[in-house]
Amino acid sequence: MQHSREIQKAIWARSSILHPILILGFTTYVIRRLILLVFVVLGVTFLVFTIAVLIPKDPAFLWAGGLQHVSEQQLEIVRRAYHLRDPWYIQYLWYLSKILRGDFGISPVRNVPIAGELAAYLPQSIELGCFSLMLSTIIGIMIGIISAVRKNTLVDHMVRLDALLMVSLPAFWIGLVMQLVFYYRLGWFPDPGGNVNLALLFLYPLQTITSFKVLDALITGNWMILLSLLQHLILPGLVMSFYTTAMIARMTRSSMLEVMSQDYVRTARAYGLPERIVVYRMALKNAMIPTTTTIGLAVGWLLTGSVVVETIFYWPGLGRYAVNAIQSYDFPALIGYVMIASLMYATANLLVDVLYGFLDPRIKQG
Amino acid sequence: MENPRPVGWIERWRSENESRLREIGLAMYLLRKNPLSLVGLVMVLGIIVMSILAPVLATHDPMSVNLSEQFQPPSWKHYFGTDDLGMDIYSRVLYAGVYDLSVGLIVLVVSTSVGTIIGVVAGYFGGKTDEVLMRISDVFLACPGLVLAMAFSAAMESRSLEVLVFAIAIRNWPSYARLVRGQTLTIREQQYVEAARASGASSWQILARHIIPNCISPIIINATLDTGRIILTAATLSFIGLGAPPGTPEWGRMVADGRVYMQYDPWIILCPGLMIVITVLGLNLLGDGLRDILDPRARIQA
């Protein structure tokens, strides 16, 4: 979990005049970052390989399904399938070539290829992630602006305290507390059991077009299901958005304050431009650059958040898939998830870096 | 100066450390001016004292099962009620504090020391060493922390304190390595370091006397904010069934175990969770305040 402070520092570092883009030029910079990404991705696969194969005492035992009853014959099959008898570098090459072909192994619990399962669970996670990112962007920018405009007033202190509180709440706990209050006590939201009411789904079957359920319901005009889907999105989306909202609010506040202390803002005020224009046209527009970058980094955090939130809301996504894999000793499935999650995280970080160059006109024109 | 006079040693010590004392005095003044960080300090100290005094403060044995007293609501006998096995939640919450705080502390010690060594070596020697070490830390930073910790603890097949500590520390050291490296790069170029080198100080002497002491305050700021994150990760890992072994009094695991019963007996999950919130919020408030106190640039703005 990255803390907003760290991110803020990283972003200020990016905006300095010594930014590599200014020295190298934009294209060279992007190419260099892409080459670096290849190295990082190779490193990540090696790291995951180390954890999955080199660290366990008997990897064959884990890959064959852990605590379940495993015969010597089955172990032998697993050893042959994953080349566990070879020296470690040959094993790694085998592992890498499998991943490049999109083969993540076979789940010993359900006996199906893991890649297919991951692909089936991913869209639901993306749906929840997008919704929660939307919530945190809107709320985060809004309270960030309020806090910056009313710097050092009671409202500002409340917002800052609130942001600290939001990063201090364990997602699993606040999720359960919200279920307790809004479902068990008040009954405002549907029960925390997945992403749609199954009885309704039986009455109004949903045609699969895009594998994103909300989109499907919109396209086919299946309003009952759409309503149910949205109702189920609200609580988990809100819980997942707490951390990122705080991140975005803090970033908006500090970068707006930074911009508002600039000379051109003072000049604008001296010329008597209305405060509304100063705040929204000048400060907000320029402050959006670092904020956008934070939003990009929030994508990485949502990956972590989804593990817990999907578990407590029984959401059929990747995070819950991983936790199920842990609880059913489905080691290959867990490692498949770890690989996918790490690759997504690494790519998101790179995109943020490149995005920053695109957004800041000072850097782009160089 | 062979025989230090016994009389007036306080004055001498005071004059020798005058600048340091003035720093401390200023820090105290700033701390008083920042009530929120004081509140944070009180919260953190409160939790630490409660955990240290757990054997004294606890009213019951945290592991004793008493099936005749299942699901008792909070009362004078059981301050925070009892859980599904009739265990006293108040006592368990206290002992869980010992577990979680020690996880936080050990991970912190491991990752700051590993991070400092690697960061100093990378920053001071530069060149190829720097490039290799920083690319390695890039790889670790490219994985989400919780996900890496999940994979590691599942691969270890055992649930114990050591595994939990290692699983979190794996992803935690690179941020310190980067911090220390950056600091080292600036200090390396300072004139007093140049002077020390010119007068014949070895690399190790310069590292120990000039570079590492100058890295301490950014490390402290980072560490305070980091401890909260470590405790959250540890509790989350325990919640999803990794981390603390089953039955251990640990805040995350207590919430996980009580989850089934929360509809009718909410106190089972409320109290352990609140302890996490108080600890982490306290650390965050304190860290935010410390940053203003220890970071001279932030001090000028304040």
Summarize the topology.
The complex is a heterodimer of chains A (366) and B (302).
Chain A: H1 4-14, H2 20-24, H3 26-54, H4 59-63, H5 72-81, H6 88-100, H7 114-149, H8 154-168, H9 171-185, H10 198-203, H11 213-220, H12 223-260, H13 263-270, H14 275-312, H15 318-327, H16 331-359, H17 361-365
Helix pairs in contact in A: 1-14, 3-6, 3-16, 7-8, 7-12, 7-14, 8-12, 9-12, 9-14, 11-12, 12-14, 14-15, 14-16, 15-16
Chain B: H1 9-16, H2 18-33, H3 35-52, H4 54-57, H5 89-125, H6 127-141, H7 145-156, H8 161-188, H9 191-198, H10 203-239, H11 251-258, H12 267-294, H13 296-301
Helix pairs in contact in B: 2-12, 3-5, 3-12, 5-6, 5-8, 5-10, 5-12, 6-8, 7-8, 8-10, 10-11, 10-12, 11-12
Q: How would you sum up this structure, described in words?
A:
The complex is a heterodimer of chains A (366) and B (302). With 366 residues, chain A is mainly α. Chain A is 77% helix and 0% strand. In chain A, helix 12 (223-260) crosses helix 14. Chain A is globular and about 85 Å long. Chain B has a domain at 98-301: MetI-like (MetI-like fold), CATH 1.10.3720.10. Chain B is globular and about 75 Å long. Chains A and B meet through helix 3, helix 8, helix 9, helix 14 and helix 15 of A and helix 6, helix 7, helix 10, helix 11 and helix 12 of B.
